Amino acid sequence: MEDKSRIIEVQIEDQMRQAYLDYSMSVIVSRALPDIRDGLKPSQRRIIYAMSELNLVPGGHFRKCAKIAGDTSGNYHPHGEQVVYPTLVRLAQPWNMRYPLIEGQGNFGSIDGDPPAAMRYTEARLQKVTMELLAELDKDTVNFRSNYDETRKEPEVFPARIPNLLINGSSGIAVGMATNMPPHNLTEICNAVIALIDNPDLEILELHKYIKGPDFPMGGYILGTKGIMDYFLTGRGQLLIRGEAEIETNKNEQEQIIIRSIPYQITKTALIDKIVELVKDKRIEGISDIRDESGRDGMRLVIMVKRNADAQTVLNQLYKYTQLQTTFGVINLCLVNGVPQVVNMKDMLNNFIEFRHEVILRRTNFELRNAEERLHILEGLRIALDHLDEVIATIRASQTPPEASEQLQEKFGLSEIQAKAILDMRLQRLTGLEREKIETEYEELLKVIDHLKDLLEHKEKRMQLIKEETAEIRDKYGDPRRTQILESYNGILNPEDMIADELVVVTITHEGYVKRMPIDTYRVQGRGGRGLTAANLREEDFIQYIFVASTHSYILLFTDLGKCYWLKVYEIPEAGRTARGKAIVNLVNLQDKEKVKAFVTLKDFNPEENIVMCTKNGMVKKTPVAAFSHPRSSGILAIKLLPGDELIDARITEGNDDLILATHNGYCNRFSEREIRPTARFTQGVRGIRLREEDYVVSMAVISQDLLMENGNALTKTILAISENGYGKRTRISAYSITRRGSKGVITLKTNERNGHLAALMLVDENDDLVIITQEGMIIRQKVSDISIFERNTQGVHLINLRENDKVVDITIIPKEPDEEELDREVEKAKNAPSMQASNTMEDVTEEQDEEEEFKDEEFPEEE
């Protein structure tokens, strides 16, 4: 017959909720989270306690890990030896523990990710620093509890003279919560403890004077201090950590990256596998080989860099795409009075100080009790020695020991404990020397008791004792920092950090296709060469612009609608010599039928520089470069164009330069930039050259102020003019006299049936290479020095052999590499020149509506 009185009806959801909560708390308290007092989880604490019971002390003998795991599992942690052993192994691994608590002998794994040997092959004993966790365990400093089967007692927590949770950190996943605490330097933590005892009102961030931040076992770098400040204040933070790497050049003049450490809790094998994967996927193309040369001297991972690659760029790519740089999320979650709690750094230090204060109180009370008990016995022995003959007679007269004890208590006023001590006293204690020892011990014990009582009465003396013990630990086990903190580094890798800073050739076609190519794509040819095919284009398309720029430069694209678009050179896709490239509309948001007409390349937005724009109808306009430093996705208005006009060129100037405008019919006008006043972006400009009938502007050249001075550089600079039929010449700058803005200009190249019309005009250097581009996509590169110098009003010489119906549409130059002196001058100039970085946000910019002041144009006589 079923007893229904024993059946309890419950809702299944209530039962499941309660059962899950019980399970969760069991995991949190008994498995996953460390105690804030000794920084250990139950499994770690039980392993160390089991080893202490086996007397595996530092300097002593080792024991098999199988024995340690067996005792731990059998006596305290009934979850199986296979669960205990991995915990024991981690406590002995120096790349996981900043201060290992166990000394291993045998194969305990490696930072490569290799597993340890089986527990039957490995041995272990405790480290010296671990004994500081166990110190005074036998002095009633902590509570003990029964083990799982109530056959033994185990400590609830260790007395812990060292702040283990802070110096070794902890990690674990509980139910609905996780902990991830970084290790710190013992010296810094001890100094912070002492400072906090001296000044309990110390602000949290003031602790940073003593604790610089985490100190990982394998060293490396922490990038920035924001994450450190965050977890100091709140107990949570994000640290950007990076392995230690440097660039070296071997005997063969080949660059190589040497990795000497990797981030905390990252395995070397996983890092190598990731690098190999990236190389195979061609996400990193500058690596030729990887070698692991690690040994007894430490880690040494060698990454060979290809000769045509930039080592710093490859290293930046490794930081970006591999775990050589990673994030460590700090969660200072631990058990505070048995309750999981996220604590900041000051609370952690205060909890340790409070725990040590409690330990010292209990230890002092324990020592006082023992001292008083011993003093009580010594007082009885002193009485016995003072009445020795009577004591002996009383003992001899007694029939049994209990009777002797009673008689002694009655005659001499002794306690039972004192009487027993007298009865147990050996005869040798009756000698004069032994009597003197008892008196000495008695006097010393009185002093000890006075000291202990004084310690119990004054908290400041107990705190002083904590400081002294902490300083002793610091001096005994402290060591220098291993992890460096780069305080000024924000930890952000910009996109250009992934790209080598090198010169490339950029081409833009008439139909709006753009690409970039290595500068060595074109081989140098002699004057009159046939050239190479630059791109496979449609019949109606041709390469309209070609120029050389750094991959880190900005490109300001100016369109026929008078708008400006912002682009980085590295954002232009790289393509082969014969490839067409990518449509600009896929890189910038051009409007329907909007075409790029001019461009400007620059390294930064220098407020002292200007952009001078020129239109087909001869209008010029000057606007500060800084006005273009805030782009937006839909472009910004750059110039106000009159009906029938279009933008043909834009150049960077420095305020005192000279401008040369060249026309289709071979005329040019040179005037000073100072005649153009700076205006806002959306303005019309002023007249630069007065055009003849059926003429229009084709080129604009800028002669900088440096070239106007008499120096060595001016002798190598000339004006190059080239016609549509491939004829050209160089002319000295001095041949072009300065007139006024708005002049009709003078002849620069005779235009006739042989030459055709003027195609382009450019300022060139004797040491430059010239690139000529034709309408059908043919390209030729030749030395500027091979082109003869003629007077201004001449026809020129043959520079390129054109196919039928083909003609020259543009030219550009490839500058020579500077020598050491020129490079030093450029570096010094870059250091002293102010610059304004462009905004990274595509923000809207208010369009200025300033009206351009109209200047009265003066007529100049036309040169015959």
TrEMBL record:
<keyword id="KW-0413">Isomerase</keyword>
<protein>
    <submittedName>
        <fullName>DNA gyrase subunit A</fullName>
        <ecNumber>5.99.1.3</ecNumber>
    </submittedName>
</protein>
